Amino acid sequence: MTAHHAVVVVGGGQAGLSMSWHLGALGVEHVVLERDRVGHEWRDRRWDTFCLVTPNWQVDLPGFPYAGDDPDGFMSGAEVVEHLEKYASSFAPPLREGVTVTRLRRTLDGVFALETTAGSCTADQVVIATGPYHEPAVPRLAERLPSAITQLHSSHYRRPEQLPAGDVLVVGTGQSGAQIAEDLHLAGRRVHLAVGSAPRAARRYRGRDTLAWLDAMGHYTKGVDEFGDADEVRLRANHYMTGRDGGRDIDLRAFATQGMRLHGRLRGIDDGVIAFAGDLAANLDHADAVADGIKDAIDRWIDANGLDAPHEERYVPVWRPARGETTLRTGDITAVVWATGFHRDHRWIQVPVFDGRGYPTHERGVTSCPGLYFLGLPWQWTWGSGRFAGIARDARHLAATITAARRSRVTEDVSWLAGTATETFPALDWVTGRAAA
């Protein structure tokens, strides 16, 4: 695979394909390297009943807006894969599947060197479009569970029948944890759910999908620099709701009335006892308060714009937990699903652009290293950045930055060559950039 490219895009998901579309439209030579197949993350890390939380009209990729007959519906995982495959076929990007980049470094002369499972190549500029979800994160205390208990990370959960009969503990109430708990609950399984501080949002409010209101209000285009602490914003958990069966709220309190056992945050495992913190009531109240805050903002926007929207009564909690810590014996469960997120794995990137937490430092995807960019990160620039809704905008910005950098480099080269007519320069070694002996 030894070759030189103007741009190498690492990752062939929605971010990498969007980047390729824009680069192609601008006539920039490039290659897209995908370690598996297009849509890999949607094929192999989603459960059978998975649906997007965002409505189909937000699946708006560059040059390929949603054109189906259900814009307010929610694509299943299989439909997302099919959509991405059709997108790739629509413009035939220079895509190489089954190629993993194992090392990226910058040489002394400013060129990027990439080592891959298909050989080596170099590039003037590189876009990292591998997303943020790399290695499943499972807490070390999982090692304290008896070996007889089946343990799965949420990325490996597919269906209830995958787990042995008996009670199941789900740890985490982000979007995956809440939806997997619902999946097991609807299948008739007894679920114990460790509830964290993730917020929730109503699926619909005052006659429209909540996300449609937020889009109309400009929330998806609000830059992260408009918030007081960008780092804090980027670490926030997503609001839980679901697109399943046409979309609905996920009401953990209602599940509790139906037999789901809710607990506070997982605190420890010792001597056959699983201990949960006494913060369940606070966590549920916080989630409800966030949902109400979103409704308040929608109400204000409706009033300010004089819109005619039906009135809707506010949510009233249908269940409240008892105060205090709770426990569960390990012998009372047969399986645990860890919906505890992912670790970033950028060890293969040997360029110093990361902060102390391993997060790439950047501004709108542009790092401090000239020619190195990131695309598809949550809150890269807006709330939509890590979703289908904002990929096109972010890719367009990076494509413009890349082409500007290319023009600048050409101008510098031309200026240097022009200067040789009147000035004397030492011969250069074009590999190292040093003066030749």
Description:
With 437 residues, the chain is α/β, with parallel strands linked by helices. The protein folds into 2 domains: 4-134 and 344-414, FAD/NAD(P)-binding domain, CATH 3.50.50; 137-341, FAD/NAD(P)-binding domain (3-Layer(bba) Sandwich), CATH 3.50.50.60. Helix content is 27%, strand content 19%. The strands form 6 sheets. Strands 1, 2, 3, 4, 5, 6 and 21 form a 7-stranded mixed sheet that branches. A 5-stranded parallel sheet has the order 8-17-9-10-13. Helix 1 (14-25) links the parallel strand 1 (4-10) and strand 2. Helix 1 crosses helix 9 (388-419). The longest helix has 32 residues, at 388-419. It is globular, with a radius of gyration of 25 Å. It starts with a strand and ends in an 18-residue tail after the last helix. Mean pLDDT is 91; it is low at 411-437.
SSE arrangement:
Blueprint: E1 4-10, H1 14-25, E2 30-34, H2 40-44, H3 77-91, E3 95-97, E4 101-106, E5 112-116, E6 119-128, E7 135-136, E8 150-153, E9 168-171, H4 175-186, E10 191-194, E11 204-205, E12 208-209, H5 210-216, H6 230-234, H7 252-257, E13 261-263, E14 266-270, E15 273-276, H8 280-304, E16 326-329, E17 335-338, E18 342-343, E19 362-363, E20 366-367, E21 372-374, H9 388-419
Parallel strand pairs: 1-2, 1-6, 2-3, 6-21, 8-17, 9-10, 9-17, 10-13
Antiparallel strand pairs: 4-5, 5-6, 7-18, 11-12, 14-15, 15-16, 19-20
Task: Summarize the entry for a quick read.
This protein has 437 residues and is of the alpha/beta class. The chain has nine helices and 21 strands. α1 (14-25) packs across α9.
